[in-house]
């Protein structure tokens, strides 16, 4: 099986790895991806994967059926946007330092094993921020985005300080059909001069609007911020 490419989502609370067979350095490549974050857990629980009744390596099955990227999330207990248990008593300044050191440590370990990611996502569904209460994007003293941007910049810097080549950085939001929410958040984070290359979108049709609304949002992101989606 060809070597799969790697993507990692990095944050204080989340990392996510992806592996693929094509390179993101070519403009306009279409990512045909899958999240395999719980695959190891599933297999340890007895799950097996088959094609036409014959058991196969699930990564081989994915690749043979056109998947060119896979995503792996690495959460710091307990994950989501709350402070990890091990970081509960840290000040804002200490947390910011921890975001950098934890992110850099993970990537240095990956680099040492020859599996540095091909894309890095900082955080997961960041509409409401990360590392609450410090990095919450709403309902505070007016400095929410300043603190959130500080955390994101530390994560980005850790990538830049450990990368082996120019690794694209993704910021990821939910509610893909809500153009106003994306524009609010991205305007704020752009005003804070956070360095990123790609906007990731979660879109679940049951909750997140119509495909037409998703399309309008994606077009707006590309035109307003000159970012890939």
Low-confidence stretches: 1-13, 17-27
Record field, number of beta strands: 9
Strands side by side in the biggest sheet: 3-6-2-1-7-8-9
- Into which percent range does the helicity of residues fall? 25-40%
Give the biggest beta sheet: 7 strands, mixed
Q: Output mean pLDDT.
A: 88
> Distance N terminus to C terminus?
29 Å
Shape: globular
What string gives the helices and strands in order?
Answer: EEEHEEHEHEHEHEHH
Keywords:
single chain; 229 residues; alpha/beta; 7-stranded mixed beta sheet; two-stranded antiparallel sheet; 15% strand; disordered N terminus
What's the SSE blueprint?
Elements: E1 7-10, E2 14-18, E3 33-35, H1 39-44, E4 50-51, E5 54-55, H2 58-64, E6 69-75, H3 92-112, E7 120-122, H4 144-162, E8 169-173, H5 179-191, E9 198-201, H6 205-208, H7 211-225
Parallel strand pairs: 1-7, 3-6, 7-8, 8-9
Antiparallel strand pairs: 1-2, 2-6, 4-5
A few lines on this structure:
Helix content is 37%, strand content 15%.
Describe the structure in your own words.
With 229 residues, the protein is α/β, with parallel strands linked by helices. It contains seven helices and nine strands; from the N terminus they run βββαββαβαβαβαβαα. The strands form two sheets. Strands 3-6-2-1-7-8-9 form a seven-stranded mixed sheet, covered by helices on one side. α4 links the parallel β7 and β8. α3 packs parallel to α4 and α5 packs parallel to α7. It is globular, with a radius of gyration of 18 Å. The two termini are 29 Å apart.
């Amino acid at each position: 099986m060809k070597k799969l490419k790697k993507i990692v989502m990095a944050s204080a609370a989340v990392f996510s790895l992806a592996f693929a067979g094509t390179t993101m350095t070519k403009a306009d490549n279409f990512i045909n991806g899958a999240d395999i974050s719980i695959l190891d857990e599933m297999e340890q629980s007895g799950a097996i994967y088959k094609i036409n009744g014959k058991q196969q390596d699930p990564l081989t099955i994915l690749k043979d059926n056109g998947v060119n990227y896979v995503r792996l999330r690495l959460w710091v207990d307990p994950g989501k946007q709350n402070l990890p248990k091990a970081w509960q008593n840290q000040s804002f300044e200490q947390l910011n330092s921890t975001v950098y050191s934890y992110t850099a440590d993970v990537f240095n370990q990956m680099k040492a094993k020859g599996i540095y990611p091909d894309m890095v996502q900082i955080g997961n569904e960041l509409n409401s921020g990360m590392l609450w209460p410090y990095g919450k994007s709403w309902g505070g003293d007016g400095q929410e985005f300043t603190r959130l941007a500080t955390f994101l910049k530390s994560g980005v810097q850790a990538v830049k300080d450990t990368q082996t080549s120019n690794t694209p950085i993704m910021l990821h939001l939910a509610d893909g059909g809500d153009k106003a929410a994306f524009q609010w958040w991205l305007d704020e984070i752009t005003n804070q001069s956070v360095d990123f290359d790609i906007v990731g979108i979660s879109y679940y049709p049951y909750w997140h609007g119509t495909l037409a609304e998703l399309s309008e949002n994606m077009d707006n992101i590309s035109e307003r911020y000159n970012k890939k989606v």
